Amino acid sequence: MDNLFVSIVMPAHNEEAVIEKSITKMSEVLKGIDVHRFEIIVVDDGSRDRTFSLVTKISAEAPHVKGVQLSRNFGKESALLAGLKTARGDVVITTDADLQHPPKFIPQLLDQWRDGTKIVHAVKRDRSTDGWIVRLRARIFNSLCSRLGGIDLRNSSDFKLLDRSVVDILVRELPERERFYRGLAEWVGFKQATIYFDVDPRKDGQGKWSLAALLNLGVTATVSFSIAPLRIVTFLGALTLLFGVVVAADAVWSWFHGTAVSGFATLEISLLLLGSFIMISLGIVGEYIAKIYQEVKRRPPFIIANTCGTGGGVNEKDRTSGEDR
Ligand code: UDP
Ligand code: MG
Q: What global pTM score does this model have?
């Protein structure tokens, strides 16, 4: 398409080892295809290494590179949102900064978009390069989310193409603060498509997801998409009631037959069971209250400390013909 403007959004947290290479590779791919103009927005999510100074250096020479530095580590979800807010393209592609989302698939994403698809998900075909714990974790996480949240996240990733109209909805019309990008991108609807890619092993640096961070994401994902856990609480209550009725019937029956009500163990077990049901339920209800509390505070999901570069340089080969839009 003439005049197509593509924005790449890359959240980066302590990625000094790979960021230069990522930007270079991404630029090469974009220069090689038929886009009029592109920008690469690196959102530095509170890195403690040289990530942002490297981006600043690159952006001084490359007009299509732009850096946004958050004031601290807000997490990938917030970094993605910061990137989506900054992006000005007709099409926005979100991708990791560690080259695990191979830039060579971008032409495929764009092909789908040209066919009228508003959202293209790039899904990992195979995680065999990850260790088995990571794979197991991902599998459990995704299947739990899809069961509880009713959104299929199996093997999904944050490597996606979004049409401008979808970006506007995500950024302007969804007021929630704590976000789960993968889920939201499915939730908005429109014509969606999926392409498959193979994951490259992480070349340098290391995976930034601690188990705690992953669990946190899982809870956010579930709590923001579904009230199923609350239903489970109700279900547990009903189950306990049924249990109570059976025990009561047994007690009455024993009373009529002159035998003693079965003893101490029953009492102890039911007490413990009930106690744990109640505490778990309180915890679940608490998660939702915490979510309400966080949303109600209306704090910004991220704070921008610094920016560099202008972004939106015209593609080399179009430079003579391209006027700024
Ligand atoms: N990331 C981020 N903030 C964080 C953690 C990660 O912006 O708090 C970025 C990271 O730099 C990378 C992407 O999110 O570009 C995915 O992170 P990582 O490679 O650690 O996770 P995985 O590949 O296992 O999903
Ligand atoms: Mg990665």
A: 0.74
Determine the distance separating the centroid of ligand 2 and the alpha carbon of 207, expressed in angstroms.
6
Confidence of residue 155 (pLDDT cuts 50, 70, 90): low
- For the chain, the domains span 5-207+300-319, 228-297
Question: Is 93 a residue whose pLDDT tops 70?
Answer: yes
Q: From ligand 2's centre to the CA of 220, what distance in Å?
A: 20
Q: Strand runs (DSSP E) across 45-164, as ranges? A: 65-70, 91-94, 119-124, 160-163
User: Could you tell me whether strands 91-94 and 160-163 are parallel, antiparallel, or unpaired per DSSP bridges?
Assistant: antiparallel
When pLDDT is cut at 50, 70 and 90, the band that residue 325 belongs to is: very low
Query: Which is the closest atom of ligand 1 to the Cα of 157?
Result: 25
Ligand 1 atom 8, closest CA: 75
pLDDT digits (tens, 9 = 90+) for 169-210: 998 888 888 788 877 888 888 888 888 887 666 555 555 567
Q: What is the three-class DSSP state of 9?
A: strand
Beta strand extents in the chain (DSSP E only): 5-12, 37-44, 65-70, 91-94, 119-124, 160-163, 192-197, 304-308
Q: Is the pLDDT at 117 greater than 80, yes or no?
A: yes
> Does the pLDDT value for residue 103 go beyond 80?
yes
Nearest ligand to residue 207 Cα: 1
Using only the alpha carbons of the chain, give its radius of gyration. 25
Structure-derived torsion over alpha carbons of residues 263, 267, 270, 272, reported in degrees to the nearest 10? -130
Strands of 65-70's sheet in order across? 192-197, 119-124, 160-163, 91-94, 5-12, 37-44, 65-70, 304-308
- Average confidence score pLDDT of the chain: 81
Place of tokens 């970006």: 167
Ligand nearest to the CA of 209: 1
Class of domain 5-207+300-319: alpha beta
Residue of minimum CA distance from atom 11 in ligand 1: 12
